[in-house]
Amino acid sequence: MDLEVDENNRFKHLFLALAASISPFFFSLRPVIVVDGTHLKGKNNGILFVAVTKDANEQVFSLAFGVGPIENDESWKWFLSNNKIKGYGQAVVELFRQAAYAYEDSEFSRAMSAMAQLKPAAYEKLMRVGLEKWARSQSPVTRYSFLTSNVAEALNARLLWARRLPICSMLEAIRMVLEQWFNDILASAEESDDLLTPEATQKISAEISKSRRYTAKRTSERKYRVRAGDRRYMVDLQAKSCECNEFDLDGMPEAKEPVEAYYLRSSLVQTYSGSVNHLPPLEHWEIPFEVATDVVLPNLSQRQAGRPRESRIPSAGERPTQRTTTADASSSLGKRAPKTCGLCSSPGHTRRACKGTGWEQ
Fold first, then answer.
1. Where are the domains of the chain?
2. pLDDT of residue 357
């Protein structure tokens, strides 16, 4: 934990990371961190910053928290907030999605070439940002299917009630949530005898089902030429690599043998084996003298204009998942819900234009 005050001894920044959250990052978690910031609620001004990743079962795993006066860090780039490209139209958004999610360089190049012809300004902006920062196929490191900040936004939504509390109470509420998560997930993981986590097993099963339409020809002891429709790829089991780049970038194969350790049930157990210590009653605390005598005044930051949002804004390029409903899919592509009359509950008009309830009389 680190606390920073300004020259007038007023609260400025706070950083908190539990040992139980940090230790697994070096041993059993994928080396990808997602960051996000969200407004504090109630009487407390400021921003709650979170740093998260995913565990072996694709669940949110918190790494660290921070509190600051305003959201002004340059690291909050437009490609994390996922909003600015919306102004270029739905066709550009779709091409951006295709380019961002593409595994193969050829697919990425086709989408970007089409975007350059359709909307040169959008193409140039993406090129200036840096392809390695948002395009899966252009990443110099394994992305493990992390392409949006949704995982961090999900944690912020889960902590909405805690963000209404004073800062000290909010931090204790967060600690209590993490304590419950660690206990519940560890107990569930220890009850299973499977090699992989449930989410990994489900994904591999889906890939195996899809691969039944493929044909494979052995070219050497650990290499195969695989034909998928009109495409052919070389698969190297020894190097754990495929020319399609899916395993290289996600680490999720079509069989259990070469799966990376990040998806093993044992990794899930290791991740949650740490203890989130319970705080004793205040009267039992042993507070160092220099801490007990240090006075930290509240900050003088002001809220931004307007009422803070209580729900996340979907990404323009966000791709619906298997768990996404039809309504969610429409929302994720930037579409608004149809208007519904508040009097007759019929779609297509509002109360003021309603003709079936005697409103105009």
1. 2-77+148-194+274-292, 83-138, 198-263
2. 40
